[in-house]
TrEMBL record:
NCBIfam families to which the protein is assigned, alphabetical: acetolac_decarb
GO biological process: acetoin biosynthetic process
Domain of life assignment: Bacteria
E.C. numbers: 4.1.1.5
Keyword RNA-binding found: no
Pfam families (UniProt xref): AAL_decarboxy (PF03306)
EC top class named in words: lyase
Identification of the protein by name: Alpha-acetolactate decarboxylase
Length: 237
């Protein structure tokens, strides 16, 4: 039995509910690998081998050791690969096709792929302050970075179409370089050779911040939610 644990929902961020509602310390009791963000959508988190790395919108990447900081939205799991993978040529557009033999359309799965990327394009959300805007507005002002011939790891998840709202339908992937100096939410990539693993999850655990009064009182706007999430996340096929 393998479990994907998600705190908060992407739909909450769409409506500006960006207060951190779970400490990283609590989050890490549910996994040693994952992705997320901090209060105010402050940057992009990549969790690898039980360590948390924070990509900031100025391009800096920080190793977070103070796990009392909080996240509004993160997904984690314990790295227990279902199958090992090796690809000769793969990019953001062909990832799903490369994994077609594994019949992922209706299941939650996770990838952890390592190699040298001839090109990678990432975004990093800028920190917002109250009153928080919608995630769509944040995406329009995001910082973007590109790198060539960089070695690192992709960490991310695939979610079935019916789960658009709680999370991103399709792929949601972060990248971190081996030297931990370059990281972010992946918009595009190209690599001539990648090796790693695929993990299929039996369980998807959705944890909600029920003790947070702003969350309890928020009115979720469902109009165009799926389309707006796709716009705000970008780059996944």
């Amino acid at each position: 039995m393998t479990k994907l644990y998600e705190h908060g929902t992407l739909a909450m961020l769409m409506d500006g509910m960006m207060d951190g509602t779970m400490t990283l310390a609590d989050l890490m009791t549910h996994g040693d690998t994952g992705i997320g963000t901090l209060t105010g959508t402050n940057g992009e988190l990549t969790i690898l081998d039980g360590e948390v790395y924070h990509a900031k919108s100025d391009g800096e990447v920080v190793h977070i050791t103070d796990l009392t900081v909080a996240t509004p939205f993160s997904s984690v799991h314990f790295n227990e690969p279902t199958v090992m993978l090796a690809f000769d040529v793969v990019d953001a557009q062909s990832l799903t096709a490369h994994l077609g033999d594994h019949d992922l359309a209706n299941v939650f799965s996770g990838i952890k792929l390592h190699g040298t990327f001839q090109h990678i394009h990432v975004r990093v959300a800028k920190e917002q302050s109250q009153p928080y805007p919608s995630l769509l507005d944040v995406a329009e002002g995001q910082a973007e970075f590109q790198a060539r011939d960089i070695t690192g790891t992709l960490v991310g998840y695939y979610a079935p179409e019916i789960f658009a709202g709680p999370t991103t339908a399709g792929w949601h992937i972060h990248f971190i370089s081996d030297d931990k100096q370059f990281a972010g939410h992946v918009l595009d990539f190209y690599a001539s050779q990648l090796k790693g693993s695929l993990q299929i999850f039996d369980d998807f655990v959705q944890h909600l911040p029920v003790d947070n009064q702003s969350f309890r009182k928020m009115k979720q706007n469902m109009n165009g939610l799926k389309e707006n999430i796709a716009k705000s996340e970008g780059g996944h096929h």
